[in-house]
Amino acid sequence: MLVNEMVQLGAKRAYIRELFEYGLRKKxxxxxxxxxDFSIGxxxxxxxxxxxxxxxxxxxxxxxxxxxxxxxxxxxxxxxEAIARNLDERFGCGARAQNIFVTCGAAPALMATMKAxxxxxxxxxxxxxxxxxxxxxxxxxxxTSVIVPPNTVDFDLHVDEIEPYFTEHTQAIIINSPNNxxxxxxxxxxxxxxxxxxxKKSEEIGHPIYLIxxxxxxELVFDGVQVPFIPNLYDNTVxxxxxxxxxxxxxxxxxxxxxxxxCADSVDLFNAVAGSARALGHICAPATxxxxxxxxxxxxxxxxxxxxxxxxxxxxxxxMGYTCVYxxxxxxxxxxxxxxxxxxxxxxxxxxxxxxxxxxxxxCPGYLRLSTCVSHEMIVKSLTAFRTLIxxxx
Length: 394
Ligand code: PLP
What we know:
single chain; alpha/beta; two-stranded parallel sheet; binds pyridoxal-5'-phosphate
């Protein structure tokens, strides 16, 4: 007898994936150039040349036993050292190899971190709109998600709106900036205010509240905007990072958990992350991917294409009357449905071969998430269809 809940989780595809699959069928039917697919966040910019060169060097090595072999579960020491050195050089955070646990991307990093913190009754504060998998992960590790409703004015952090959601069971809050799905980068003042609140609440509650910083979009920022390094603002921060987006390596499955020394119970927490990963079936992150990031963790992404897409789509849509906060990071835009519910609008858009998932699964009905990691040509071509669409609701 199988566990019904898991059967359902596997059988029920997320709406975004459904839309993506629909897009594939539609493209086969009417030609890819006639489908405006804004559904998923698969990087459209190729991995930087440095990555390709590192890949070739690694493939050409004679030491194939090493490059295809197991590494330590925590990651190869040379890789952890390179990651820690890079973090320390960029943020002056004093990171050491011992603080880095190399994972198969951000998703397993989050899962291991959430499980590591999960005492009985643990609550995790999640800010809407959120990456939908957070809820799945929290539930899977035995925790409870406590959702703070969205602030649709600016989609920034507002501590007065978050404060009522703390209880004696709060273990952690999850922060994702630059944000999927809004593209918002939280301001330093907002994060400082959150750090103050977390210190106050930890004191009141009598145990440390952790901040889980989910940062796969850290380097994808525009207009010279800075992404504050949260461990420098709040000691009890654990960073979950991934190169899926920054180096366009989503299929290579590589990322890490950074547990700083300053974090409460740092050594135990690091061991708990390692133990949780082990209990979830982690053996080691793919060895070739590890050696690539060892050589390339200092490489910055080429954000020009995403920047052009963002500007063209934002300008085009807002001129027509769509509304959206200006995204300073990641490769998403969160557009308000100009008529009907977001689901109705998404269905209407489908009739014009525009694929835009509603914000409902991100905990924010009434909005649509547009991935701008697509070809510029598609964006330009889609604008006529977007105009027809908004006019159909007038
Ligand atoms: N967190 C956020 C906010 C994401 O958008 C994603 C992927 O889209 C992930 C985590 C998972 O990333 P990874 O591919 O590294 O597992």
